[in-house]
Specification:
Blueprint lengths: L10 H11 L3 H20 L1 E7 L5 E4 L106 E7 H6 L16 H8 L9 H6 L7
Antiparallel strand pairs: 1-2, 1-3
Length: 226
C-alpha cells in the first residue's frame, strides 16, 4: 500500500501544513526568489513574468538571478529599457533575447529529485526530450551540441499550469500596462499576499509579525476544518 498524498485545497490547509511540518526548503527558495523579483519590479518599474500562452496565467515572477534558456541569468543580459521593455540579448553568449527557463526541479514537478542522496540541484538543468539540458543547446539555433537533436523541446511541464516550456513566454510590462490590464502591481505583486503575516514570515523571512505564530493559531483552532 502507498501512503495517500494530501493535496492542500485552501490557504488554511497550506498554513496548517507549514505550522506542522515547516516550509519545504526548495519551495521556500523559489518563493524568496519571487519576492526578490517583486522588489526588483517595484524598484525598476518593469514587471517580468513567465506566462502561459494558452491562458495568460502568470506562472512565475522573474528575478535578476533567474536563468535563461541560453544558460545565463537575466542579470547577464543587457539592461531592460523601461521606455521599451522587451527581452534583451545576453552579454556572455549569442542569445538574442532573454527567455526564462526553470532552474530547480520543483518548478516542473520533479520534487523528489532533491531528496535523492548525492543529487546536486546546482547541476540540474531543465531537460530536452533528447535528455540533454537546455544549456547544451545552441542559444540561437537551439540545436543540441551533444547529439543530433535539431531543436530544444522540453521534457517537462510547468507546475503552475501543466503547460510545456514552449507554451510559455517571457513577458515584460511597465506598471501602467499592468494597471490597465487589472494585474497586481506594487506590494500586491509580491508572493503570498493572500496569506497571513505569519505564513509570509515563515516562508519569506524578514521581521517577525507581532501577533501569534502559526503554531499558536493552529492550537487555538483558528483554521477551518475544510
Amino acid at each position: 500500500d502507498t501512503m495517500p498524498l494530501h493535496v492542500p485545497r485552501s490557504v488554511d490547509d497550506v498554513e496548517r501544513g507549514i505550522a506542522a511540518y515547516g516550509a519545504a526548503p526548495g519551495g521556500k527558495l523559489l518563493l524568496r526568489r519571487e519576492a526578490k523579483a517583486a522588489a526588483e519590479a517595484q524598484a525598476s518599474g518593469v514587471y517580468i513574468t513567465w506566462c502561459s500562452t494558452k491562458t495568460g496565467a502568470e506562472c512565475c515572477r522573474i528575478a535578476s538571478v533567474c536563468r535563461c534558456l541560453c544558460g545565463h541569468r537575466l542579470e547577464d543580459h543587457a539592461p531592460v529599457n523601461k521606455n521599451n521593455p522587451r527581452p534583451t540579448p545576453c552579454t556572455n553568449c549569442e542569445c538574442r533575447g532573454y527567455s526564462f527557463v526553470p532552474s530547480r526541479p520543483e518548478e516542473v514537478g520533479m520534487w523528489w529529485l532533491p531528496r535523492r542522496k548525492g543529487f546536486d540541484v546546482r547541476a540540474w538543468r531543465a531537460p530536452c526530450k533528447c535528455k540533454h539540458g537546455h544549456d547544451a543547446h545552441d542559444p540561437r539555433t537551439r540545436r543540441c551540441h551533444g547529439c543530433a537533436c535539431a531543436s530544444f523541446v522540453s521534457d517537462y511541464v510547468c507546475i503552475g499550469c501543466d503547460g510545456a516550456q514552449e507554451e510559455h513566454e517571457t513577458v515584460l510590462e511597465v506598471e501602467s500596462e499592468r494597471r490597465a490590464a487589472k494585474k497586481p502591481v506594487g506590494d500586491a505583486f509580491a508572493p503570498l499576499q493572500e496569506c497571513s503575516a505569519e505564513l509570509r514570515h515563515a516562508v519569506l523571512g524578514g521581521a517577525a509579525p507581532s501577533h501569534q505564530s502559526l503554531e499558536d493559531r493552529v492550537a487555538r483552532g483558528e483554521f477551518s476544518a475544510s
